[in-house]
Specification:
Number of domains: 4
Bound molecules: ligand LQZAQKY5, molybdate ion
CATH class of the largest domain: Alpha Beta
Distance between the termini: 75 Å
Strand content: 25-35%
């Protein structure tokens, strides 16, 4: 009997391959709701106390208070003479910033005084040196200044005990200076959440011009900078291969020294897109699973049973940027105990393909008191975002010239 061949074998019906159960498809969340959910999802991380020099960019964990009045004493605001009563005035001495003239002035007396020095008791006002005529006889003449002129009163800016800046404020240069003015050397802060970026995509090259059919990785270089701008601490970028399956799961679960893992690519439905499957397998809680916006709608936010957060950013570079602003920024804010910044609304001009029911995120450039849509904002293209000043979130019912909330481009 000849051996059976494919041609002569009894035909059999193809056995259907088991179809992996598709994770339940959630309704796309409105864009604003996705941001709010991402900010509200985590508990703020524990506060710690750090020296002022280490606090920039972190978030105040408690309101900043001043234990002493600001300024701490009645202070000369001009170089000149601290005068008492009406002139002419007899010069009794001099007081420089940082020193104290212990006496008290009587009517018709004055001391030479520097800007920033404590004004002596009895001072009526400071007569600026430009308005004063000092004679060789030790007397000063000049117009009689109104009481209090050129004196900063103790506590004029804030009395002792005043709450100056609320908890939840991101710490910038002015706040550091203010804290020092109050006499603080340290601040209670919530630390920046540590974010590991995992870039997926076997088609990606990571240096130089890409080879034939290859794509230069745009997100590895972009995301650490965006993480820092959003208030996170970048813990570096790892490139994860699509094959073998399981490598992404290992990288996600292996990011133990972080609070957040941001995965780029792998959010869609393709053969190599592993992210949703691995989250389902790990028993993750989906907080956001697709958003009613363009681009970036396959984005997601999930919490692993370990408490670590996973943000899924679509592979298309501009879509990833939009998704990072929509989910990663608010998540970082929530972990730091910061509220979402209220977004300014400004008129937007320019045209965009209609997308009924969806929020459109477009790069914009300031133009007078409004903004203009910047060219080059297909989901795969970064030209518009790179050249623009901000992103505008055009609401579903937006029409040309109408207002839209603005996000800083980061
Ligand atoms: N059948 C479907 N296909 C796609 C859908 C869908 O719903 N059904 N959604 C489309 C949309 S929208 C997007 S966005 C992408 C999202 O895809 P992934 O997140 O799975 O990402 P990839 O497929 O890996 O890549 C998409 C695209 O972006 C390029 N890419 C990826 N990473 C980088 C990088 N680091 N730097 C530069 N470019 C990158 C990649 O080469 C692809 O061209 O899915 C659509 N398809
Ligand atoms: O939403 Mo995709 O993010 O359009 O390219």
């Amino acid at each position: 009997m000849p051996p059976a061949t494919a041609a002569t074998a009894t035909p059999t019906l193809p056995v259907p391959l088991p179809v992996p159960a598709a994770p339940p498809r959630h309704r796309e969340l409105p864009w604003e709701q996705a941001r709010t959910l991402a900010q509200g999802a985590p508990r703020p991380s524990a506060a710690r106390t750090v020296p002022l020099a280490d606090a920039v960019g972190l978030t105040l964990a408690e309101a900043l208070r001043t234990p002493q009045p600001l300024p701490a004493f009645d202070t000369a605001a001009m170089d000149g003479y601290a005068v008492a009563g009406t002139g002419p005035w007899r010069i009794r001495g001099a007081v420089r910033a940082g020193t104290v003239w212990e006496g008290a002035l009587g009517a018709g007396e004055c001391v030479e005084i520097s800007t920033g020095a404590q004004v002596p008791a009895g001072t009526r006002a400071v007569l600026p040196v430009e308005a004063a005529l000092a004679g060789a006889d030790g007397m000063v003449a000049g117009p009689v200044p109104p009481p209090g002129r050129h004196i900063r009163r103790a506590g004029e800016d804030a009395p002792a005990g005043t709450g100056l800046v609320p908890a939840g404020t991101r710490i910038g240069p002015a706040l550091l200076g203010l804290a020092a003015s109050c006499g603080h050397d340290t601040l209670p802060v919530r630390p920046a959440p540590r974010v590991r970026v995992l870039v997926t995509g076997d088609e990606l090259d990571h240096a130089g011009p890409p080879g034939p059919g290859r794509v230069r990785d745009a997100l590895g270089p972009a995301l650490p900078a965006l993480v820092a701008a959003l208030g996170g601490e970048s813990r570096g970028v790892r490139h994860v291969r699509d094959r073998p399956a399981g490598s992404l799961a290992a990288a996600v679960h292996g990011a133990r020294d972080t609070e957040v893992v941001a995965v780029t690519g792998s959010t869609s439905a393709g053969a190599t897109d592993q992210l949703r499957g691995l989250l389902a397998e790990a028993g993750a809680r989906m907080v956001v699973d697709t958003v009613a916006c363009r681009p970036g709608h396959p984005m997601l936010l999930a919490e692993l049973p370990s408490g670590r957060w996973v943000v899924g950013l679509p592979g298309n570079p501009y879509a990833a940027l939009v998704a990072a602003h929509t989910l990663l920024g608010p998540l970082i804010a929530g972990l730091c105990g910061r509220a979402l910044d209220p977004l300014p609304r400004v008129p937007v001009t320019g045209s965009v393909r209609p997308a009924p029911g969806l929020t459109r995120l477009v790069p914009v450039t300031w133009y007078g008191t409004g903004v203009r849509i910047t060219a080059g904002h297909g989901s795969a293209f970064l030209r518009g975002a790179a050249a623009g000043d901000a992103l505008a979130a055009l609401p579903p019912d937006w029409t040309e010239g109408g207002p839209a909330p603005l996000l800083s481009a980061g």
